[in-house]
Amino acid sequence: MQRCLELAQQAAGQTAPNPMVGSVIVQAGQPVGEGFHPGAGHPHAEVFAIQAAGDRTLGSTLYVNLEPCNHFGRTPPCTETVIQAGIHQVVVGMIDPDSRVAGSGVQRLREAGIEVIVGVEEAACQKLNEAFVHRVTQHAPLGILKYAMTLDGKIATTTGHSTWVTGPEARATVHRLRSTCDAVIVGGNTVRRDNPHLTTHGQSTHTPLRVVMSRALNLPTTAHLWQTEQAPTLVFTSEKASPQQQDALTHQGVEVLVLPDLKPRAVMAELYQRGCAAVLWECGGTLAAHAIADRSVQKVWAFIAPKIIGGVLAPSPVGNLHLHEMTDAIALQHLKWRAVGPDLLVEGYLNWPEPDYTS
Question: Of residues 46, 67, 121, 282, which has the active-site annotation?
Answer without folding.
Answer: 46
